[in-house]
Amino acid sequence: MSKIHVTTTINNEPVEFLCDGSQTILDVLRDTLGLTGSKEGCGSGDCGACTIMVDGRMICGCLMLGAEAEGKRVETIEGMAQGDHLHPLQQKFIELAALQCGICTPGFLVASKALLERNPKPSEHELRYWLAGNLCRCTGYDKIIQAVMEVAADLRK
What we know:
alpha+beta; DNA polymerase, domain 1; 2 domains; five-stranded mixed β-sheet; 5 strands; about 35% helix; about 15% strand
């Protein structure tokens, strides 16, 4: 099978890679580019563990082909921190223990950041609705919701 050459931007850096036509962007990120932050939980778009941003839209990396990244702007969990300085959401998740095994955490963080960029004052109801596509089997959701709501309040100060 011939490889497809893709030129894209990932976390504000120009990137080129080769992929099979059936390879997902999640597989490209993890296996080809070494960006292992996004996780595969289900492989069917049901759990949100592989949530990434593509041209400003949240998508499940397990449902997008790597070749579809051509000319697109991709943002992953690795792009949230600025060097050693964690994004406020990452810091708050740590402070409030809003994570355990870590499989779902990158997806929750990417999705939460996307919401706060669109709506810096979400109600708890709006936040829960927004995060409904992200599943957690360890932590439960209360600490995650609390962390995001606290960051939203902090960012408005």
